[in-house]
């Protein structure tokens, strides 16, 4: 008989809240250009944003029974992360399940399969990031693992890792690296603010970015 786990360590909520202040791109760059899920996984609406501990689940293609089990056992603030084989032609999640998630106070959904009822999802405001939009229905047949590491969007996501999604995409931060990711993200924000101030003060991109020596070493000649 299949046995699934529902217990795992979650990160410090205060650190999760701090990470949510930074964009997915900033976090990705700050942790050495790591953690970005495939660019094919996008929000149903650009205004959607999420940041929370991953509650992972693996589903068979065109089958959402384990997604429903995950929703039942996830805790408030958790983000359901579904690995379903990168199957685009299935609408495995819609407004009915989204309302179940809202009622439980969940933080969002990320899936490498399709969703539907997108107008209703936008009106509800529950953050949904998916591979596709598809009206095709699913079955409820295949049980599988939950709260175990999954592969999604080219990245391994473990239960309790933090996922941050916004208009540009999704990035994952390892639970043990969360504090460092916050620190480095703030450093990057501060550095970029300095670049912008320098541009507005009249300095060139080449000057601010220190590109002159790099371009010279590469033999680039510019006639002015």
Short account of what is shown:
The protein contains 8 helices and 9 strands. By secondary structure, the protein is of the alpha/beta class. Helix 1 packs parallel to helix 6.
SSE blueprint and pairings:
Elements: H1 13-19, H2 24-30, E1 42-43, E2 50-58, H3 65-73, E3 79-83, H4 95-104, E4 108-115, H5 118-124, E5 128-133, E6 150-152, E7 155-157, E8 162-166, E9 169-173, H6 178-200, H7 205-209, H8 212-217
Parallel strand pairs: 2-3, 3-4, 4-5
Antiparallel strand pairs: 1-5, 2-8, 6-7, 8-9
Helix pairs in contact: 1-6, 2-6
Structural descriptors:
about 220 residues; alpha/beta; two-stranded antiparallel sheet; 9 strands; about 20% strand; Putative 4-hydroxy-4-methyl-2-oxoglutarate aldolase; RraA/RraA-like_sf; EC 4.1.1.112; EC 4.1.3.17
| Structural class label | alpha/beta
Major sheet summary line: 7 strands, mixed
Helix count, DSSP H or I runs of 4 or more residues: 8
Distance between the amino and carboxyl termini:
75 Å
The residue fraction in helices comes out at 25-40%
């Amino acid at each position: 008989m299949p046995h699934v786990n529902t217990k795992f360590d979650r990160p410090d909520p205060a650190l999760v809240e701090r990470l949510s202040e930074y964009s997915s791109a900033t976090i990705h760059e700050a942790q050495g250009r790591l953690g970005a899920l495939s660019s094919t996984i996008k929000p149903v609406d650009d205004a959607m944003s999420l940041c929370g501990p991953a509650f992972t689940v693996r589903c068979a293609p065109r089958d959402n029974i384990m997604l429903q089990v995950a929703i039942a056992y996830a805790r408030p603030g958790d983000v359901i992360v579904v690995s379903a084989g990168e199957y685009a032609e299935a609408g495995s999640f819609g407004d009915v399940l989204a309302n179940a998630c809202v009622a439980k106070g969940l933080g969002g959904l990320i899936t490498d399969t399709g969703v539907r009822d997108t107008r209703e999802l936008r009106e509800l405001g529950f953050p949904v990031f998916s591979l596709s939009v598809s009206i095709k229905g699913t079955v409820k047949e295949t049980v599988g693992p939950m709260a175990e590491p999954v592969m999604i969007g080219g990245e391994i996501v473990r239960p309790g890792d933090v996922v941050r999604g916004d208009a540009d995409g999704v990035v994952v931060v390892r639970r043990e690296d969360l504090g460092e990711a916050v620190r480095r993200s703030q450093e990057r924000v501060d550095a970029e603010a300095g670049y912008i101030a320098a541009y507005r003060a009249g300095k060139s991109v080449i000057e601010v970015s220190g590109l002159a020596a790099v371009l010279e070493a590469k033999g680039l000649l510019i006639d002015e």
